[in-house]
Design a protein that fits this description.
By secondary structure, the protein is α/β, with parallel strands linked by helices. The protein folds into two domains: 5-144, Response regulator (Rossmann fold), CATH 3.40.50.2300; 173-359, Hypothetical protein af1432. The chain has 15 helices and five strands. The chain has helices at residues 21-32, 44-53, 70-79, 97-106, 118-172, 181-196, 207-216, 229-232, 240-247, 249-261, 268-279, 300-315, 326-335, 343-351, 353-359; strands spanning 13-17, 37-41, 58-61, 88-92, 110-113. The protein has a five-stranded parallel sheet, sandwiched between helices. The radius of gyration is 34 Å and the shape is rod-shaped.
Length: 362
Protein backbone atom coordinates (compact mmCIF):
# COMPACT_ATOMS: atom_id res chain seq x y z
CA UNK A 1 0.00 0.00 0.00
CA UNK A 2 1.37 3.40 -0.96
CA UNK A 3 2.18 5.68 1.97
CA UNK A 4 0.18 8.90 1.41
CA UNK A 5 1.01 12.59 1.75
CA UNK A 6 4.12 13.47 3.74
CA UNK A 7 4.86 9.78 4.25
CA UNK A 8 6.05 9.55 0.63
CA UNK A 9 9.38 11.01 1.76
CA UNK A 10 9.07 10.36 5.48
CA UNK A 11 9.07 6.90 7.09
CA UNK A 12 7.78 7.19 10.67
CA UNK A 13 9.59 5.46 13.49
CA UNK A 14 6.93 3.95 15.76
CA UNK A 15 7.59 2.58 19.25
CA UNK A 16 4.89 0.17 20.50
CA UNK A 17 4.76 -0.64 24.22
CA UNK A 18 2.51 -3.48 25.45
CA UNK A 19 3.12 -6.44 27.74
CA UNK A 20 0.67 -8.61 25.76
CA UNK A 21 2.46 -10.37 22.86
CA UNK A 22 -0.74 -10.71 20.83
CA UNK A 23 -1.39 -6.95 20.92
CA UNK A 24 2.22 -6.22 19.94
CA UNK A 25 1.96 -8.63 17.00
CA UNK A 26 -1.30 -7.16 15.68
CA UNK A 27 -0.11 -3.54 15.94
CA UNK A 28 3.25 -4.40 14.37
CA UNK A 29 1.60 -6.09 11.40
CA UNK A 30 -0.79 -3.17 10.95
CA UNK A 31 1.91 -0.49 10.91
CA UNK A 32 4.54 -2.47 9.04
CA UNK A 33 1.91 -2.91 6.35
CA UNK A 34 1.85 0.87 6.10
CA UNK A 35 5.62 0.88 5.47
CA UNK A 36 6.45 2.30 8.91
CA UNK A 37 9.51 1.36 10.93
CA UNK A 38 8.11 -0.43 13.97
CA UNK A 39 9.87 -1.26 17.25
CA UNK A 40 7.84 -3.39 19.72
CA UNK A 41 8.85 -3.62 23.41
CA UNK A 42 7.04 -5.54 26.19
CA UNK A 43 7.70 -3.29 29.19
CA UNK A 44 7.95 0.31 30.35
CA UNK A 45 11.62 -0.02 31.32
CA UNK A 46 12.56 -1.31 27.87
CA UNK A 47 10.43 1.42 26.29
CA UNK A 48 12.46 4.14 28.03
CA UNK A 49 15.71 2.53 26.96
CA UNK A 50 14.55 2.11 23.35
CA UNK A 51 13.30 5.71 23.14
CA UNK A 52 16.56 7.05 24.55
CA UNK A 53 18.61 4.99 22.10
CA UNK A 54 16.62 6.11 19.04
CA UNK A 55 14.02 8.83 19.35
CA UNK A 56 10.70 7.64 17.89
CA UNK A 57 8.26 9.78 15.93
CA UNK A 58 5.31 8.45 17.90
CA UNK A 59 4.68 6.03 20.79
CA UNK A 60 1.69 3.70 21.18
CA UNK A 61 1.56 2.99 24.91
CA UNK A 62 -0.40 0.47 26.97
CA UNK A 63 -1.37 1.41 30.54
CA UNK A 64 -1.71 -1.79 32.55
CA UNK A 65 1.81 -3.25 32.65
CA UNK A 66 3.76 -4.79 35.54
CA UNK A 67 6.57 -2.90 37.37
CA UNK A 68 5.94 0.37 35.55
CA UNK A 69 2.50 1.30 34.19
CA UNK A 70 1.86 3.49 31.17
CA UNK A 71 1.19 6.62 33.24
CA UNK A 72 4.65 6.45 34.83
CA UNK A 73 6.31 5.69 31.50
CA UNK A 74 4.61 8.73 29.99
CA UNK A 75 5.69 11.00 32.84
CA UNK A 76 9.31 9.85 32.58
CA UNK A 77 9.30 10.42 28.83
CA UNK A 78 7.98 13.95 29.32
CA UNK A 79 10.71 14.67 31.90
CA UNK A 80 13.37 13.88 29.29
CA UNK A 81 14.27 17.00 27.27
CA UNK A 82 15.04 14.90 24.18
CA UNK A 83 11.77 12.93 24.31
CA UNK A 84 9.24 15.35 25.78
CA UNK A 85 7.81 16.38 22.40
CA UNK A 86 7.26 12.85 21.09
CA UNK A 87 3.47 12.30 20.77
CA UNK A 88 2.12 9.45 22.90
CA UNK A 89 -1.14 7.66 22.11
CA UNK A 90 -2.45 5.51 24.95
CA UNK A 91 -4.05 2.19 23.92
CA UNK A 92 -5.79 0.54 26.87
CA UNK A 93 -8.71 -1.63 27.94
CA UNK A 94 -9.51 0.98 30.60
CA UNK A 95 -12.45 2.98 29.31
CA UNK A 96 -13.52 5.01 32.33
CA UNK A 97 -13.46 8.77 31.84
CA UNK A 98 -11.13 9.28 34.82
CA UNK A 99 -8.60 6.89 33.25
CA UNK A 100 -8.69 8.77 29.97
CA UNK A 101 -8.31 12.13 31.75
CA UNK A 102 -5.42 10.76 33.79
CA UNK A 103 -3.67 9.57 30.62
CA UNK A 104 -4.09 12.92 28.87
CA UNK A 105 -2.98 14.78 32.00
CA UNK A 106 0.16 12.65 32.12
CA UNK A 107 1.07 13.94 28.66
CA UNK A 108 -0.72 11.75 26.15
CA UNK A 109 -2.08 13.34 22.97
CA UNK A 110 -4.79 10.76 22.38
CA UNK A 111 -6.49 7.67 23.83
CA UNK A 112 -7.73 4.52 22.06
CA UNK A 113 -9.68 1.84 23.91
CA UNK A 114 -9.22 -1.91 23.42
CA UNK A 115 -10.30 -3.87 21.51
CA UNK A 116 -9.05 -1.44 18.87
CA UNK A 117 -9.87 -1.30 15.18
CA UNK A 118 -7.16 -0.91 12.57
CA UNK A 119 -8.96 2.04 10.93
CA UNK A 120 -9.05 3.97 14.23
CA UNK A 121 -5.40 3.30 15.08
CA UNK A 122 -4.44 4.19 11.51
CA UNK A 123 -6.41 7.45 11.43
CA UNK A 124 -5.30 8.70 14.84
CA UNK A 125 -1.65 7.78 14.44
CA UNK A 126 -1.63 9.40 10.97
CA UNK A 127 -3.05 12.62 12.37
CA UNK A 128 -0.53 12.91 15.21
CA UNK A 129 2.40 11.84 13.04
CA UNK A 130 1.57 14.56 10.55
CA UNK A 131 1.14 17.18 13.26
CA UNK A 132 4.43 16.16 14.90
CA UNK A 133 6.25 16.17 11.57
CA UNK A 134 4.90 19.59 10.66
CA UNK A 135 5.83 20.96 14.08
CA UNK A 136 9.41 19.80 13.61
CA UNK A 137 9.54 21.27 10.12
CA UNK A 138 8.18 24.55 11.48
CA UNK A 139 10.82 24.57 14.23
CA UNK A 140 13.53 23.97 11.64
CA UNK A 141 12.13 26.74 9.47
CA UNK A 142 11.89 29.15 12.41
CA UNK A 143 15.44 28.32 13.48
CA UNK A 144 16.71 28.86 9.96
CA UNK A 145 14.74 32.10 9.70
CA UNK A 146 16.08 33.27 13.06
CA UNK A 147 19.65 32.50 12.02
CA UNK A 148 19.09 34.27 8.71
CA UNK A 149 17.74 37.36 10.48
CA UNK A 150 20.66 37.32 12.92
CA UNK A 151 23.11 37.10 10.05
CA UNK A 152 21.44 39.93 8.17
CA UNK A 153 21.30 42.12 11.29
CA UNK A 154 24.95 41.34 11.95
CA UNK A 155 25.85 42.24 8.38
CA UNK A 156 23.92 45.51 8.56
CA UNK A 157 25.38 46.32 11.96
CA UNK A 158 28.91 45.54 10.79
CA UNK A 159 28.53 47.75 7.74
CA UNK A 160 27.16 50.57 9.88
CA UNK A 161 30.03 50.23 12.34
CA UNK A 162 32.52 50.24 9.47
CA UNK A 163 30.96 53.42 8.08
CA UNK A 164 31.01 55.12 11.49
CA UNK A 165 34.61 54.09 12.04
CA UNK A 166 35.57 55.39 8.59
CA UNK A 167 33.97 58.77 9.34
CA UNK A 168 35.76 58.94 12.67
CA UNK A 169 39.02 58.15 10.90
CA UNK A 170 38.48 61.04 8.49
CA UNK A 171 38.52 63.37 11.47
CA UNK A 172 41.52 61.60 13.03
CA UNK A 173 43.63 61.74 9.87
CA UNK A 174 43.73 65.52 10.21
CA UNK A 175 46.14 65.36 13.16
CA UNK A 176 47.27 61.72 13.14
CA UNK A 177 48.65 60.72 9.78
CA UNK A 178 49.04 57.09 10.85
CA UNK A 179 45.28 56.75 11.32
CA UNK A 180 45.82 54.02 13.94
CA UNK A 181 45.05 56.03 17.10
CA UNK A 182 41.37 55.05 16.99
CA UNK A 183 42.16 51.36 16.63
CA UNK A 184 44.42 51.39 19.67
CA UNK A 185 42.05 53.48 21.80
CA UNK A 186 39.28 51.06 20.94
CA UNK A 187 41.41 48.12 22.12
CA UNK A 188 42.43 49.92 25.33
CA UNK A 189 38.82 50.81 26.15
CA UNK A 190 37.61 47.26 25.69
CA UNK A 191 40.45 45.86 27.82
CA UNK A 192 39.78 48.37 30.60
CA UNK A 193 36.02 47.73 30.54
CA UNK A 194 36.49 43.98 30.78
CA UNK A 195 38.86 44.43 33.71
CA UNK A 196 36.53 46.90 35.43
CA UNK A 197 33.63 44.45 35.06
CA UNK A 198 35.34 42.53 37.87
CA UNK A 199 35.77 45.63 40.08
CA UNK A 200 33.54 47.79 42.27
CA UNK A 201 32.09 49.15 39.01
CA UNK A 202 30.84 45.75 37.85
CA UNK A 203 27.16 46.65 38.30
CA UNK A 204 27.54 49.34 35.63
CA UNK A 205 29.32 47.13 33.13
CA UNK A 206 27.68 44.33 31.19
CA UNK A 207 28.32 42.83 27.76
CA UNK A 208 26.20 45.51 26.11
CA UNK A 209 28.21 48.27 27.80
CA UNK A 210 31.48 46.71 26.66
CA UNK A 211 30.26 46.30 23.08
CA UNK A 212 28.89 49.83 22.89
CA UNK A 213 32.07 51.27 24.39
CA UNK A 214 34.20 49.42 21.88
CA UNK A 215 32.07 50.70 19.00
CA UNK A 216 31.60 54.30 20.19
CA UNK A 217 35.09 55.08 21.51
CA UNK A 218 36.33 55.97 17.98
CA UNK A 219 33.84 58.86 18.04
CA UNK A 220 35.54 60.63 20.94
CA UNK A 221 37.23 63.25 18.73
CA UNK A 222 34.73 63.33 15.86
CA UNK A 223 34.14 67.03 16.61
CA UNK A 224 37.65 67.84 15.38
CA UNK A 225 36.18 68.14 11.89
CA UNK A 226 34.93 71.56 13.03
CA UNK A 227 38.30 72.85 14.25
CA UNK A 228 40.33 74.97 11.76
CA UNK A 229 43.57 73.40 10.53
CA UNK A 230 45.54 76.50 11.47
CA UNK A 231 44.73 75.72 15.10
CA UNK A 232 44.44 71.94 15.10
CA UNK A 233 47.66 71.33 13.15
CA UNK A 234 49.70 74.11 14.69
CA UNK A 235 53.22 72.90 15.57
CA UNK A 236 54.33 73.74 19.07
CA UNK A 237 52.33 75.17 21.94
CA UNK A 238 48.91 76.69 21.27
CA UNK A 239 47.81 79.97 22.81
CA UNK A 240 45.05 80.11 25.45
CA UNK A 241 42.68 81.49 22.81
CA UNK A 242 43.56 78.68 20.42
CA UNK A 243 43.07 76.10 23.16
CA UNK A 244 39.55 77.45 23.75
CA UNK A 245 38.85 76.79 20.06
CA UNK A 246 40.22 73.23 20.32
CA UNK A 247 38.08 72.56 23.36
CA UNK A 248 34.98 73.18 21.26
CA UNK A 249 35.46 69.83 19.49
CA UNK A 250 33.69 68.19 22.44
CA UNK A 251 30.61 70.34 21.89
CA UNK A 252 30.69 69.99 18.10
CA UNK A 253 30.88 66.20 18.33
CA UNK A 254 28.18 65.78 20.96
CA UNK A 255 25.83 68.30 19.32
CA UNK A 256 26.11 66.46 16.01
CA UNK A 257 25.07 63.19 17.63
CA UNK A 258 22.31 64.94 19.59
CA UNK A 259 20.69 65.66 16.24
CA UNK A 260 20.82 61.94 15.39
CA UNK A 261 19.36 61.11 18.80
CA UNK A 262 16.21 63.09 17.97
CA UNK A 263 15.36 60.38 15.45
CA UNK A 264 16.67 57.38 17.44
CA UNK A 265 15.79 58.38 20.99
CA UNK A 266 16.25 54.95 22.54
CA UNK A 267 19.51 54.03 20.84
CA UNK A 268 22.03 53.23 23.59
CA UNK A 269 24.90 53.41 21.09
CA UNK A 270 24.14 57.06 20.30
CA UNK A 271 23.60 57.92 23.97
CA UNK A 272 27.05 56.56 24.81
CA UNK A 273 28.61 58.25 21.79
CA UNK A 274 27.29 61.61 22.99
CA UNK A 275 28.66 61.04 26.50
CA UNK A 276 32.08 60.07 25.18
CA UNK A 277 32.37 62.88 22.65
CA UNK A 278 31.33 65.52 25.20
CA UNK A 279 32.95 64.31 28.40
CA UNK A 280 36.21 62.48 27.61
CA UNK A 281 38.18 65.62 28.57
CA UNK A 282 36.45 66.02 31.92
CA UNK A 283 38.67 65.44 34.95
CA UNK A 284 38.09 63.57 38.20
CA UNK A 285 38.78 66.76 40.24
CA UNK A 286 36.39 68.89 38.17
CA UNK A 287 39.02 70.92 36.29
CA UNK A 288 38.24 69.48 32.86
CA UNK A 289 36.00 70.68 30.04
CA UNK A 290 33.47 71.48 28.66
CA UNK A 291 31.15 71.18 31.69
CA UNK A 292 33.51 70.95 34.67
CA UNK A 293 32.07 67.60 35.74
CA UNK A 294 33.79 65.70 38.53
CA UNK A 295 34.11 62.21 40.00
CA UNK A 296 31.09 59.93 39.29
CA UNK A 297 29.33 62.87 37.66
CA UNK A 298 31.47 62.08 34.62
CA UNK A 299 29.94 59.21 32.59
CA UNK A 300 31.86 55.99 33.19
CA UNK A 301 32.39 55.45 29.46
CA UNK A 302 34.09 58.87 29.23
CA UNK A 303 36.29 58.13 32.27
CA UNK A 304 37.52 54.97 30.57
CA UNK A 305 38.14 56.71 27.24
CA UNK A 306 40.08 59.46 29.08
CA UNK A 307 42.74 57.00 30.27
CA UNK A 308 42.88 55.16 26.92
CA UNK A 309 43.11 58.39 24.91
CA UNK A 310 45.79 60.01 27.07
CA UNK A 311 47.89 56.84 27.20
CA UNK A 312 47.91 56.58 23.42
CA UNK A 313 48.63 60.30 23.02
CA UNK A 314 51.62 59.93 25.35
CA UNK A 315 52.94 56.88 23.51
CA UNK A 316 52.56 58.48 20.07
CA UNK A 317 54.76 61.02 18.32
CA UNK A 318 52.87 64.23 17.61
CA UNK A 319 53.88 67.54 15.99
CA UNK A 320 54.35 69.04 19.44
CA UNK A 321 56.04 66.09 21.28
CA UNK A 322 58.06 62.91 20.88
CA UNK A 323 56.68 59.44 21.67
CA UNK A 324 57.04 58.55 25.36
CA UNK A 325 57.99 55.12 26.67
CA UNK A 326 55.40 52.98 28.44
CA UNK A 327 57.17 53.63 31.74
CA UNK A 328 56.95 57.39 31.26
CA UNK A 329 53.29 57.23 30.19
CA UNK A 330 52.51 54.95 33.15
CA UNK A 331 54.17 57.39 35.54
CA UNK A 332 52.15 60.33 34.20
CA UNK A 333 48.84 58.44 34.40
CA UNK A 334 49.50 57.23 37.94
CA UNK A 335 50.49 60.73 39.06
CA UNK A 336 47.20 62.06 37.67
CA UNK A 337 45.04 59.47 39.46
CA UNK A 338 42.32 61.24 41.50
CA UNK A 339 43.21 64.49 39.69
CA UNK A 340 42.63 63.83 35.99
CA UNK A 341 41.60 60.17 36.11
CA UNK A 342 39.18 57.94 38.00
CA UNK A 343 41.40 55.98 40.43
CA UNK A 344 39.53 52.74 39.72
CA UNK A 345 40.22 53.06 36.01
CA UNK A 346 43.88 53.79 36.73
CA UNK A 347 44.02 50.72 38.99
CA UNK A 348 42.59 48.59 36.17
CA UNK A 349 45.17 50.09 33.78
CA UNK A 350 48.03 49.11 36.10
CA UNK A 351 46.67 45.58 36.47
CA UNK A 352 46.64 45.01 32.69
CA UNK A 353 49.52 47.27 31.63
CA UNK A 354 51.26 44.42 29.83
CA UNK A 355 48.21 44.12 27.58
CA UNK A 356 48.53 47.83 26.80
CA UNK A 357 52.19 47.37 25.86
CA UNK A 358 51.26 44.50 23.54
CA UNK A 359 48.47 46.53 21.93
CA UNK A 360 50.68 49.51 21.01
CA UNK A 361 51.76 47.76 17.82
CA UNK A 362 48.68 47.41 15.62
Amino acid sequence: MKIPDIFDQYVPNVLIVDDTPANLKVLCEMLKGRGFKVRPVPSGKLALQAAEKEIPDIILLDIMMPEMDGYEVCRKLKENSKLKDVPIIFISALNDTKDIVKALTAGGVDYITKPFQFEEVNARSNTHLKVHHLQRELEKHNFHLEELVKEQVKEISSSQMATIFALAKLAEYRDDDTGTHLIRVRKYCKMLAIRLSESALQKQIDLSFIENLSNTSPLHDIGKVGIPDIVLLKPGKVTPAEFEIIKKHTIIGSNTMEEVLKTYTRNTFIHMGISIARSHHEKWNGSGYPDGLSREGIPLCARIVAVADVYDALRTKRVYKPAFSHEKAREIIISDSEKHFDPLVVKAFIEIENDFIAAVEV
